[in-house]
Amino acid sequence: MSYLPDPSVLLVAGFGVFLIAFMKGAFGGGLAIVGIPVLSLVLDPISAGAVLAPLFVLMDIAALYYWRPSTWSKADLVLLVPGLACGTAIGFLLLKVIDRSMVAILIATITLAFTALWFRGGGRIVQRPRSPIKAMLAGTASGVSSMMAHSGGPPVALYLLPLGLPKAVYAGTASSFFAAGNLMKVAP
Question: Which of 101-110, 129-138, 173-182 has the lowest mean pLDDT?
């Protein structure tokens, strides 16, 4: 017996995948951060993440080809990647014990916090200096949410956007950060 999903599920899932693939590939992130929450409307976040894993590997190859090391903020990657590794390990351990609905709540909370902070600031980006502590927290939160549901965009955006990086540097840094994270997730 074959299972045919509801056409509305396919439509919403297709839109979520499009948002992620197009926005990450074309803009190095941007609106791709809303793709998993959209996909989570019709799939539990862990299943949505499993569906997207092969797509992310292909996107990382293309992103690293386009966003060369000259577009990376190496100073920020040095601060973010250790937290990413720690968060990926924590996320892997949590996957074994956490309820899938808790993952959905976590993703929703992070996305709403990102949105609230954006609106609280009037949609403006106020440039702030680098902070190793904020970078570690953002990297760890991104690693956890990325490992659990490929939804690590909001935490790292909360750290990178206030730095006032040029658009190409933001996109290159985000692309290389998530390529490193997806590479870390291959074994688990």
Answer: 101-110
List b or e across 136-159, with b for residues whose CB sees 16 or more CB atoms inside 10 angstroms. bbbbbbbbbbbbbbbbbbbbbbbb
Cβ atoms 35, 20 nearer than 8 A: yes
Candidates 92, 90, 76, 88; CA nearest to 176 is: 76
pLDDT at position 2 over 60: no
Q: Do residues 140 and 90 lie in contact, with contact meaning Cβ atoms separated by under 8 Å?
A: yes
How far apart CA 117 and CA 39 sit, in angstroms, is: 23
Q: What whole-number distance in Å separates Cα of residue 128 and Cα of residue 158? A: 11
Convert 42-101 into a string of H (helix), E (strand) and C (coil).
CCCHHHHHHHHHHHHHHHHHHHHHHCCHHHCCHHHHHHHHHHHHHHHHHHHHHHCCCCHH
CA dihedral sign, ordered 2, 50, 43, 62: negative
Ramachandran area for residue 164 (φ above 0: left; ψ -120 to 50: alpha; else beta): left
What is the spatial distance between Cα 177 and Cα 36, in angstroms, rounded to a whole number? 18
Q: What is the rounded average pLDDT for all residues in the chain? A: 81
Contact of 172 with 72, CB cutoff 8 Å: yes
